[in-house]
Amino acid sequence: MAKAMFEMFAIGTAKRGIAFTRYERQDEAGLTHVQIATASARIDAAEALLRRSVDSLETTATGGAPMPLEQRIRIWRDAGFASQLIWEAADLMAGASGGAIANIGNPMSRLWRDVRVAGLHGAICTSTTMEVFGRVLLGKTPNTPPGCLTDDK
Question: CA 43, CA 121: separation in Å to the nearest integer?
């Protein structure tokens, strides 16, 4: 969703100006350059975290040994943090798109809302995933329901 939004945003910068400025095209503004680079970096960072998690899962699946608790919870933390990065990128692009983002017919508006709603899912709530990982780093139990990321029954 963030990548699709990124493509729409990039194309749109050549077609719209920036209200109350002398920029006839948004892609001429230095601020736009910073915004698109920042959104790109956040999307790339999220993807790198998720790819690392997939690699870790595949390695464990082929290795035959159970995945250590810290590694399982790191994957969960990374999913939550990737979700946060994706939301930050989407929100940055939405804000840079101006009031047109509120138009219900704007495809970027739908993507923006969908990214936000997906990120609100309890399984990838960043504050929860960070708390659980922090607990494990400090030698405490994960404080999750039995069987959720742990071997508890």
Answer: 19
Determine how many CB atoms are found less than 10 A away from the CB of residue 27.
Answer: 15
Q: Count CB atoms within 10 A of the CB of residue 88.
A: 19
Q: What is the pTM of this model?
A: 0.90
Q: What is the pLDDT, as a whole number, of residue 152?
A: 57
Domains annotated on the chain, with CATH: 2-137 (1.20.140.10)
Rounded distance, CA 149 to CA 135, Å?
A: 13
69-96 and 107-119 helices, crossing angle to 10°: 150
CB 81 within 8 A of CB 48: no
Is residue 33 helix, strand or coil? helix
Integer Cα distance of 75 and 54 in angstroms:
9
Sequence-distant (6+) residues with CB within 8 A of 125 are 80
